Inverse folding.
């Protein structure tokens, strides 16, 4: 029986992340023909425990391990989008302590490893010793390998990739599942990422932009679709559910919108950019409502931290717009990724800052308009689908542009859907290729 650990941590409150975890489990099973024990990382810390970040995936019965390198936030319940200097300093000292301890674990010398183990609690020690018995480490898909020149970028990349370096120490094969990688504007952070990628048996990227970037860095990579494209919608009918929430699906055009509390890291005018983001979205929504289009603010990701809690900007927008019968705020912690994908299928358009809300929509043939942030994912994937005209940067999401693009989609829905269908023809074949390639690399 093979043993596979899927990293980084699973977070059910982030429905996109959850879909990647579930798809990675499926890939691992197909690679090893079901003869596999799959382990996942639990999101730990007071905030994570308070928000029950793993409760849906736990029901699937997979064993959870505790990350060896924990987030500096772990003992805090602070739930603000921005952080005070005092909090950042406190996290900095924690990160320094963690950095020293984990460096010791990566040493070639057993005596130094034993010293590093003293920094770990009982659960972390169990994870550390479990690494020696792993047959493979899968880094699930996503878009977390990027930096914009911030001072803390090197630590963030080390935090994200520590498990790869520990796997290297014990010669555990590493497979990087379809990610978006870059830009990497911090030189030290870039070295950390490239060192991890060079060890991997194979690196998969989910769009051409990342593929071309890695070519310039002498990293051999293969392209394969985002694993979120393999999510299947729930079989449950949510029409009555939406009607109860006030969404009148059959009476008029319906648009769903996902936002996120984005910090604009690395930007000197981050606060102004965030304020402009919300202002433009507000103007856009008011235009839709004026033109008798129903708008649903959809809480796609709910935490565990404020930086990942979409209810924060959604509430700001909802409270800033005068009450309207066609303006609905939908926030339901009980929904999982499959449920949300099914719900998006009832809409005429999804405008998504959360890019997996865009992917979920495309899966069910609902046209989508992407508000791009954080790396190459939105631009690259939409370009690969011949939908690059329907991407707006979060740094400048002009309301007039959003309005024009939305009406273009709503007036030419069939043309948009034909592009989705063309892309979908490739998906099943691409998944089969991915599984067979990983098998080949594993046995190489």
């Amino acid at each position: 029986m093979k043993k596979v650990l899927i990293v980084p941590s699973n977070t059910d409150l982030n429905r996109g992340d959850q879909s990647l975890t579930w798809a990675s489990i499926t890939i691992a099973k197909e690679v090893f023909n079901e003869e596999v024990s799959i382990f996942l990382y639990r999101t730990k810390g007071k905030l994570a425990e308070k928000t029950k970040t793993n409760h849906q995936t736990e029901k699937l019965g997979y064993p959870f391990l505790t990350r060896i390198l924990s987030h500096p936030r772990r003992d805090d319940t602070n739930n603000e989008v921005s952080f005070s200097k005092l909090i950042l300093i406190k996290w900095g000292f924690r990160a320094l302590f963690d950095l020293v301890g984990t460096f010791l674990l990566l040493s070639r010398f057993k005596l130094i490893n034993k010293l590093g183990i003293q920094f770990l609690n009982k659960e972390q020690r169990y994870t550390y010793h479990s690494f020696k018995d792993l047959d493979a480490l899968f880094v699930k898909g996503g878009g977390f390998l990027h930096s914009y020149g911030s001072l803390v970028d090197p630590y963030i990349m080390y935090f994200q990739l520590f498990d790869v370096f520990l796997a290297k120490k014990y010669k555990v094969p590493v497979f990087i599942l379809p990610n978006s990688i870059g830009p990497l504007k911090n030189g030290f952070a870039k070295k950390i990422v490239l060192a991890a990628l060079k060890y991997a048996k194979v690196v998969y990227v989910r769009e051409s932009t990342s593929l071309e970037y890695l070519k310039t860095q002498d990293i051999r990579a293969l392209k394969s679709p985002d694993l979120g494209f393999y999510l299947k919608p729930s079989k449950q009918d949510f029409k009555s559910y939406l009607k109860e929430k006030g969404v009148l699906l059959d009476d008029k055009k319906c648009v769903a919108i996902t936002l996120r509390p984005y910090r604009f890291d690395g930007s000197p005018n981050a606060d102004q950019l965030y304020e402009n983001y919300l202002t433009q979205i507000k103007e856009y929504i008011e235009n839709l409502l004026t033109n008798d289009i129903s708008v649903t603010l959809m809480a796609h990701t709910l935490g565990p931290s404020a930086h990942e809690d979409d209810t924060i900007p959604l509430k700001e927008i909802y409270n800033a717009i005068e009450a309207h019968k066609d303006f609905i705020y939908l926030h339901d912690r009980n929904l999982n990724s499959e449920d949300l994908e099914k719900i998006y299928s009832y809409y005429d358009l999804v405008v998504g800052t959360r890019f997996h809300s865009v992917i979920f929509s495309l899966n069910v043939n609902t046209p989508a308009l992407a508000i791009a942030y954080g790396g190459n994912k939105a631009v690259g994937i939409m370009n690969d689908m011949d939908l690059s005209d329907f991407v707006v940067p979060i740094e400048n999401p002009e309301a007039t542009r959003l309005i024009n693009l939305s009406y273009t989609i709503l007036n030419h829905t069939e043309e948009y859907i034909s592009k989705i269908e063309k892309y979908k023809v490739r998906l099943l074949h691409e998944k089969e290729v991915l599984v067979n390639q990983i098998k080949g690399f594993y046995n190489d």
User: Anything to note?
Assistant: The chain is about 50% helix and 15% strand. The CA atoms of residues 180 and 283 lie 31 Å apart. The chain has two domains: 2-229+427-443, 235-411.
